Every structure is written in C-alpha cells, then in structure tokens.
Amino acid sequence: MLPFTRPDIDEETIASVAEVLRSGWLTTGPKCRELEDALSTRAGGRPVRLVNSATAALEFALRIACVGPGDEVITTSLSWVATANVILAVGATPVFVDIDPATRLIDLERVSAAITERTRAIIPVDLAGLPVNRDILYEIASRHGLRVIEDAAQSQGARWNGRELGCFGDLIAFSFHPNKNMTTGEGGCLVMNSEQEARQFEKLRLQGVTRNADGTYDCDVLGGKANLTDIAAAIGLGQIKRLDAFNQRRRELARLYFSKFDGLSRLQLELPLADFEHSNWHMFQVLLPASLANQRGELIRRMRETGIATGVHYPAIHQTALYKNLGLANAHLPHTESVASRILTLPLFPAMQEADIDRVVIALTQGLDHLSHEKTLA
Predict the structure, then answer these.
(1) Which residues fall within 8 angstroms of residue 225, CB to CB, at 6 or more apart?
(2) Any bridge partners for residue 76, and if so which?
(3) What is the pTM of this model?
(4) Can you list the residues of the chain whose pLDDT is less than 50?
(5) What is the 3-state secondary structure (H, E, C) of 275-304?
(6) What CA–CA distances, in Å, run from 177 to 51, 88, 185, 186?
(7) Chain segment 301-324, per-residue pLDDT in tens
(8) 105: CB partners within 8 A, 6+ apart
(9) C-alpha distances in Å from residue 113, one per residue of 94, 110, 216
(10) In Å, what is the CA distance from 226 to each residue of 84, 214, 257, 350?
C-alpha cells in the first residue's frame, strides 16, 4: 500500500529518542528547550513555545489576543475543523469567508467585506502549504486594527517573498502532526511577538501555573494541559535538521506530478496552483470534474484496491453537523462547497520515487476513465 503520506524518521533520531528514554526525564525538559531554540532561530530569533498540538497553539493564540465571548473571528471553511473549533472554544463566533478558487485559500477581498465592529481577528489557513498573500492580509489587518493568527499548520518552511513564514507577522501556529513536513509524533508550536506573550503562553499550556523559586507556585489564569514531552522533542530535533531537504524533495515530486498530468486534459482534472516560490508542497491535491463529484468515494475505493491511499482534505467545516446546529450552514460559500466536494489528496512524501508517481497517475487515470464510462452508460 502506498500511503498518501508517511513520516521519514532516520536511525539517528531513533537513537536520540532511546537516549531520552534512558535518561529518566521524559516530560517537558532540555530537549523541548533545545527544539524551541532551533525553531526560534528559523523564525529570526522570535520567541517560540511548544505544545502538544497546533490546535492548542491556535486556541492559546486567541486567548493571548484577548478574543472571547461576543467577538467574531474571520476564517475559511476549507480546513481541518480545529481551525474553527478553537474559535468556539474561547466563546467567539467564526465568520466563514469563501475561498479564491484558483488558490483554494481564503479570498482576502471577501475578508474586508466581512469585517464588523465585533471582528477581533483573522485566522488564514495555508492549505496544502501554499501561503495566503501576507502583504494583503496584513494590510487589511492593520487598516482595521485586527490580530492575525496564522494557521500555518501545513506550511512549515514555506516562504513569502523570500522570507520564511514565522520570521514576520503576528501569531503563527505550526503543526508537527505525523502527516506534516516535519513531525514530533504529535505536537505544535506558536511563534510570538514578545517574551511577555511567551510567558503567558507558558502559563496557558500548563494549568496557568507560575512556579516560584522556593518550590511553591501560583495560578492566576485558567490554563490547560498541553505541554510537549522531551520524547517528542527529540523526534523534532532530528526532523528540523532535514526540513529543507524534505521540502526540496516535495517540490521535485510535485513537479513530477505536473509533468505526468501534462497531456491528460481528457481527465478534466483541476491541478493545484504551480507555485514553486512560496509553497512547501505539503500536499498535492486535484479537483475532480464536477460531473464525478458524487463518485469520489468510489474512486477512492478503486484506488485503494490498486494499493494507493488517498485523502479528502477537507470537507467544508460549515457543512458539518456541529456548525449546522449552530446555524452557520447557511453561509454563502459556493467556491468552498464546490472545492470541498471535489478535492482529492494524492500521495506525496519525501521517500516517494518517480515510479510511485507513475502508479498514482495510472491508477487515477484508470479510475476516472472507468467512472466516466459508467456515467455514459447510465
């Protein structure tokens, strides 16, 4: 079975994890501080703190930005549900804006129109590792006095106009889930603007506690339990050394996909934006023809039978039961709904070879031809 993604963990990293296990110090400790320092270096020296998921990083970022009940946060519905769930978690209301069908990212022109007196922040999502236009995003935020919490979960190592994400901007959350370009097993981090924000984040990730020199502690804010372990950080330290190489290989594989699909116009697939300047190519996603959208599940099944796993990233958040029950399903998001109904994530990870790309394209081609033939007969 060719998975749609697979982490690449080398023997040196496995050995470093074993060293942590033997050390007896398994929870947050020196390895976490070492990884935070390495991440801070990539972020131009800005403070970075680890947590056990990007979801926690996003929620704590909202709390640092003082977003709460009665506030609105503008975001996209084409994302993992966590992007909107964290807004609900702090008592605020998500306001979904449609996407630009060319980039599949939040349509920044529509963001301006969605701003009200209750709007406090914007959460853009770098779907598949393609960055939202940071120049326009921050111009809008500055003009309206809004905080920006970048859901950069998928864009570790991506760049905007030559600068790596995290080196600039407001609050930036990255994910280290196993399907990301670098992993800690599970985990995430937040890049912040000041040591004051970093200290607040440290309290939020561990029950709101501040430890005193005499061994006692105080608790002055309601925090959670979201600290990362040194076991996970040891994996991350091995991964961050290879992140640039991983991303370079992903770009090479994405170029192979484009070359293999070239000339297959009969498939009527919509390919992703071929951006090799900014994207880290976290995923390679195609859009099926609208006429075959309701047969996507059958295509996924047929490809799995040939030994190829695919994914759907993502169903539209506003169409899930939770958000329907909140009355948010009526948002006018035609582009989001169209893309969500047709999107298919193809295998892409650094260990893949050209022969793997060939397998995927052949299986996809045969599957689409079969479905088109069946539709014609029907």
Answers:
(1) 205, 206, 207
(2) 97
(3) 0.97
(4) none
(5) CCCCCCCCCEEEECCHHHHHHHHHHHHHHH
(6) 11, 22, 6, 5
(7) 999 999 999 999 999 999 999 999
(8) 76, 99, 124, 125, 126, 127, 130, 132
(9) 15, 5, 50
(10) 19, 25, 38, 29
> Helix 354-377 to helix 243-261 angle, to the nearest 10 degrees?
40
Report the distance separating Cα 317 and Cα 321, nearest Å.
9
Question: Which of 240, 262, 285 is the endpoint of a domain?
Answer: 240
Residues 6+ apart with CB under 8 A from 348: 4, 5, 250, 253, 254, 257, 281, 282, 283, 284
Domain residue limits at 173: 11-240
- The domain that holds 46 is classified in CATH as 3.40.640.10
For tokens 């190489």, name the residue: 245
Q: Of 180, 178, 64, whose CA–CA distance to 121 is shortest?
A: 64
Quickly tell me which residue has 């960055």 as its tokens: 131
Strands (E), 79-219: 93-97, 99-100, 105-106, 119-123, 147-151, 159-160, 163-164, 171-175, 188-191, 209-211, 217-219
Q: Quick one: pLDDT at residue 251? A: 98
pLDDT at 378: 62
Length of the chain counted residue by residue: 378
Q: What is the pLDDT of residues 102-142, one digit of tens each?
A: 999 999 999 999 999 999 999 999 999 999 999 999 999 99
What is the b/e burial string over 303-316, where b = at least 16 CB atoms within 10 angstroms of the residue's CB? beeeebbbbebbbb
Regarding whether 138 and 267 lie in a shared domain, the answer is no
> Which tokens go with 336?
């989001």
User: How many domains does the chain fold into?
Assistant: 2
What positions carry a catalytic annotation? 180
The answer to whether residues 184 and 223 belong to one domain is yes
- Measured between alpha carbons, how far is 228 from 294 in angstroms, rounded to an integer? 41
- Residue where a domain stops, chosen among 225, 240, 255: 240
What pLDDT is attached to residue 2?
Answer: 97
